[in-house]
Specification:
The protein is an alpha/beta fold. The protein has 14 helices and eight strands.
Length: 286
């Protein structure tokens, strides 16, 4: 049974227990052991990075060094956490001066960045370590070709040479459930999550543009793999009704929820009742 150090982040356990529950249930089904990393701090994405770059490097280097001591790859379900950990990992692997400087600080806590534990996103684990063919064999209740729009999120794909995540991974993972991937013009556009603390009106408009593009392209559901993106595309639909008088009624599901349902899990096992915009209509398509 492959084992990973789980870096759960701040937002998932605080706001989206449905994401955590569905991820852990899917992982258990495929024999993936997720061990929570202890004594780790927030990754600081994106605010700490903008305000204190060296502090941001240190806090993520510490998490990486703790994982190095254990020896397992880090897996996270959060794009922001993935982006921070992956960026710092890439920096310290390629910049000797930064690595030496950060290890001087880490030595005070008997830690050292060695680059043993590689940061990885949970969907990357599903795609590479489990594999699409293995997943296909476990689909018990395939979706009936219903249209699902994918929002990858900025920190999962950019910069490509650092994240090493292909923009086709989620397409294949969604299609294996029996759903149809809906292409829409604004698939690369940011959802506005990182803008929210400084310009709420702009953040809501970005979410509106994204949802409108999905809906007009024929999406019946949307899927994400990031809690901040879900907050924008799921929860902000309530604000859009107030700000613009528009109702999109586009359920937004985390990918492990969709996969879990297609594998025959009960709706309570994937926390379907916790979605803000009701996602129970997806049950009619199984």
């Amino acid at each position: 049974m492959p084992t990973y150090s789980l870096y759960i982040g701040c937002s998932v356990p605080a706001n989206y227990p449905n994401y955590e529950a569905s991820m852990r249930r899917v992982a258990e089904f495929f024999g993936l052991e997720l061990e929570y990393l202890a004594d780790v701090a927030c990754c600081g994405s994106p605010n700490l990075r903008a305000m204190d770059y060296w502090g941001w490097v240190q806090v993520n280097a510490r998490t990486l060094a703790i994982a190095d001591k254990i020896g397992y790859d880090i897996v996270t379900p959060c794009n922001g956490c993935f982006g921070s950990l992956k960026d710092v990992y890439h920096l310290l692997k390629h910049d000797t001066k930064y690595r030496e400087r950060v290890n001087i600080e880490l030595e005070k806590d008997d830690l050292e960045f060695k680059g043993i534990s590689k940061p990885r996103h949970f969907i990357e684990i599903l795609y590479t370590d489990v594999g699409v063919d293995t997943i296909r064999k476990k689909i018990a209740k395939p979706l009936d070709g219903v249209g699902i729009a994918i929002h990858y999120g900025c920190h999962l794909l950019r910069p490509g040479d650092v994240t090493e995540i292909s923009h086709t991974i989620l397409d294949e993972l969604v299609e294996v459930t029996g759903a149809h991937v809906v292409e829409y013009p604004l698939w690369k556009q940011c959802c506005g999550a990182t803008v929210l603390p400084v310009d709420e009106d702009l953040a809501i408009r970005l979410a509106r543009d994204k949802l409108k593009s999905m809906k007009e392209s024929g999406a019946v559901f949307a899927t994400v793999v990031c809690p901040a993106c879900c907050n924008q595309l799921d929860l902000q639909q309530l604000d859009l009704k107030e700000s613009y008088g528009e109702e999109y009624n586009l359920p937004v599901l985390f990918y492990p929820q969709i996969l879990g349902l297609a594998m025959g899990f009960d709706e309570s096992e994937v926390g379907l009742e916790m979605n803000r915009v009701s996602a129970t209509p997806i049950l009619k398509h199984l």
